[in-house]
Amino acid sequence: MGVVKGGKPFDSCNATHERILETALGLFSTRGYLGATTREIARQAGIAEVTLFRHFPSKVKLLEEAITRYSMLPSLRAFVPKALAMPYEEALTAMAEILLDTLVQLKDWLRIMHAEVQRSPEKLLGIYHTFLDELFEVIASYFRELQKTGSIGSFDPELGARVFHAMFYCFFNIEEVLLRKQYRPTDREKAVREFVRMFVHGTGGIGRTDYARAS
């Protein structure tokens, strides 16, 4: 279809695409990936199911794009170039806030997703861990750039990314999913500050164990 009248058909196509993604994420968050059918996603998006499949050839592809679009990946990717110009501790604090803000926003979906990965690993394991690989790589790329300039110590960047993510995912899981905040709330700002400080002390110094030699 050609673009006419200022690109309206193209804009309409984009709007439909976005509406499908938003509707899918909402249903995935309440019914899970396995429980949300393409027929129901299309119905709630106000389109025919065949239209949904014109945008997404399968429910798997719909889930993959929803994860990429609404996860912390776009924000972190955009932030890394800025982070490289910031003090190490300040940049890590900002990255931690991006992680936590997004995790809280996606809390309902994550809770269901984890249960579904256990029930149907053959359908979801690859999708979930492909996303995690991309997330770890974005964080690791930041560490690699700093290591090139000698700004931080020598360690495995991917394992460092996993440790950094794990600290804040664990905090989110305990506070938001296991509801510790209703039992004995923890000041988030203080927790982020302390976690980042410990991470900086463990990775920021020059002259610590050289990963390349140790491995």
UniProtKB/TrEMBL annotation:
GO molecular function, one term: DNA-binding transcription factor activity
InterPro entries: Homeodomain-like_sf, HTH-type_TetR-like_transc_reg, HTH_TetR, Tet_transcr_reg_TetR-rel_C_sf, TetR_C_Proteobacteria
Keywords recorded for this protein, A-Z: DNA-binding
Keyword check for DNA-binding: yes
DNA-binding region: 37-56
PROSITE patterns, A to Z: HTH_TETR_2 (PS50977)
Entry keyword Transmembrane helix: no
Domain HTH tetR-type: 14-74
The name this protein goes by in its record: TetR family transcriptional regulator
